[in-house]
Amino acid sequence: MQRRHILRAGLALPSLITAWRAGAQNLPDGWPSRPIRLIVPYAPGGGTDVLARAVADKAGQRLGATIVVDNRPGGAGNLATAMAAEAAPDGYTLLVGNIGPIAVNPSLFRNLRPDPATALAPVTLLAAAPMLILVNRRLPVTDLRELVALAKEKPGELNYGSAGNGSANHLAGAYFALRAAINIQHIPYRGAGPALNDLVSGTLQMMPATLPSSIGMVKDGLVRALAVTTATRVPALPELPTVAEAGVPGYEMSAWYGIMAPAGTPRPIVDRLRQEIAAAIHLPEVRARIEAEGAEPSGNTPDEFRDFAAAERRKWAEVVRDARITVD
Q1: Which of 101, 302, 311, 328 could form a disulfide with 81, with the two C-beta atoms 3.0–4.6 Å apart?
Q2: What pLDDT is recorded for position 204?
């Protein structure tokens, strides 16, 4: 799949350049003439922040403007999402939208406003990343089956952390509990970084975490990885089984990250942003960094990203309903 994404990007490049040249003629005069703010819904150090910073510098260079990463944690990502949605649609404010605020929160929060489906304009999908089921090294389990058995032996006594209510970590844990038929307690944090720190210390017993934000801790022996959440194993940790292989059939998910702009942002600006961000993603050094952390680069079109996000909203609406997840 990763190779097909890269090949499609390469084959489409001439037509993308032609489209950009045509659209550039309609760009507002002087744009961009000042720094572009890229709002990240979580604290520094988490998977969303890691990937945002991996592409911001190179994309900014290609655009001829500095892209400033602005971390705005809180409210399950809704705070940052609303901030981006309410900004002027002039191409100077962008958001790293991910699975939580964009695909999950509309089902979690009653009467969510603004609705990300209509208040934001998709630009491009940056990457999709597997998640790892992690445990504190002092927890007496060595594989996923033992973790499930321990959770069934001690219902409600094991906890797991997340980057906040409605985050990918939260949904991964709730979905895992649903598929494994176990009772584990969710502890929300203001970002994945603080939660991972507490997993290392032992305040948390387990945590689903994106591979980019946690692979270093795994390789350094600070936490133990039991399984990967995707349908296939990942090259970065080939010995690690999938959740389905490890005893919880039917479980599959990935975290994803995409660039969005306020609704109403002129399409020539959206297309130019997509063009340069997609090009930055596939620069050898950026692509290598993303892939080394287990994520799969994308760079799809605004319309493809819109369709993808809509499909994700439908999927997670079913999970929220079946797992009876509530946050308000």
Answers
A1: 101
A2: 97
